[in-house]
Recover the amino acids of this structure.
């Protein structure tokens, strides 16, 4: 997909809790077709920013837009273009993946024919064939992440916001999730929060780095690596250590 227009926009986003600033004056755009890694130490403001972008939190200042739609003015319309996977995605543990996907399909108003089409597609994309009839609480963390991803993809969103999608996964599961993310990036716009710097090299076209609630870097993985003399870990520490 050719980058042509911003699909994710943060414009002067700030969030205050009393005198504490969780984030301050964060601005960036993610163009159509980009996979952007969102980095930062714990407490830097990544999750707060993502929750504002997805409409789960209201900003104290600024605007968030998905596919050109102001999230605060019309969250329902913006949500039609958005798929959001939190770090611990909400799943109903007593349901099977089949039942869960049909439940969310009905909640999103998919017709029976569309549901059949989308069900087949997300099951294949997320490799869920072997666990469709197993209760979710019996699935491994990796499979639960796949079920969460399938639910996120069900309504064919143009924009995906993923919060720590590989957190807690073993090396094989991480590899599968990275491959899935790269495949999804061929047709969609992705903003991917992570603590794992290897994800940057593996999947990202661009990097946003936050520290102390502020955006301190916006550039390519190569440009970030140069900040640390060719080492991503050094670049990360150099730009976030003081914060």
């Amino acid at each position: 997909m050719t980058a042509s227009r911003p699909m994710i926009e943060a414009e002067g986003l700030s969030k205050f809790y009393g005198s504490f600033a969780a984030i301050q004056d964060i601005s960036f755009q993610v163009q159509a077709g980009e996979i952007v890694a969102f980095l930062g130490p714990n407490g830097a403001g990544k999750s707060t920013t993502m929750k504002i972008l997805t409409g789960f939190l209201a900003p104290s200042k600024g605007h968030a837009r998905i596919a050109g739609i102001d999230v605060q003015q019309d969250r329902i319309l913006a949500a039609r273009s958005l798929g959001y996977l939190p770090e611990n995605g909400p799943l109903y543990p007593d349901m099977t993946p089949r039942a869960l996907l049909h439940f969310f399909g009905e909640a999103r108003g998919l017709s029976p024919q569309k549901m059949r089409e989308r069900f087949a597609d997300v099951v294949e994309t997320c490799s869920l064939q072997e666990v469709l009839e197993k209760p979710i609480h019996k699935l491994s963390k990796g499979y639960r992440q796949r079920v969460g991803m399938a639910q996120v993809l069900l309504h064919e969103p143009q924009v995906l916001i993923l919060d720590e999608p590989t957190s807690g996964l073993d090396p094989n599961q991480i590899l599968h999730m990275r491959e899935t993310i790269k495949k999804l990036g061929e047709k969609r716009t992705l903003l991917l929060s992570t603590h794992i710097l290897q994800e940057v090299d593996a999947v990202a076209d661009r990097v946003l780095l936050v520290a102390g609630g502020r955006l301190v870097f916006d550039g390519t993985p190569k440009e970030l690596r140069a900040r640390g003399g060719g080492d991503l870990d050094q670049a990360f520490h150099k730009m976030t250590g003081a914060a």
Remarks:
- The longest helix spans residues 112-125.
- The chain has nine helices and ten strands.
- The mean pLDDT is 91.
